[in-house]
Amino acid sequence: MGKNYIDIENDRGETLRYRKHVNGRGLVANGAKVHPTACVEAGAYVEPGVQIAAGAFIGRGAWIESDVVVGPKARIAPHAHIMSKAQLGPGAQIGVRTQVGEGAKVAGGSLIGDDQTIGDGERVATDRRGLRLAA
């Protein structure tokens, strides 16, 4: 039986330990909290301090930086990048290769399409078609 974790050295020369999440086999750093009903697909990285709620989905190759909060049933598509301290509300959907900036907030139920960029600190809310709502 193989080991259920991997050690990776970061840019500062620190070694971080990641465990393979039971639902999807994605890599979750020590200090991150991922609900057992969430799915973190293989090839996804979840950094320390992240909180992922029940029923959330993190696609292959997605990178969730430190201190991000992912709400219940939120969906992050493959290869998306969610930067530090961002918050995704319940049921928010983030498209393929989309980047959510540091400290940005995506309202619950929002649909952010593929290849989009949400700026640092930006607050975004959309309707079900992905059209942005007035702040």
UniProtKB/TrEMBL annotation:
PROSITE patterns given in the database record: HEXAPEP_TRANSFERASES
Keyword Transmembrane helix: no
Gene3D superfamilies documented for this protein: Hexapeptide repeat proteins
Alphabetized UniProt keyword annotations: Transferase
Domain of life: Bacteria
Coiled coil: none
Transmembrane region(s): none
Presence of keyword Zinc: no
Sample GO molecular function, one term: transferase activity
Protein name: Transferase
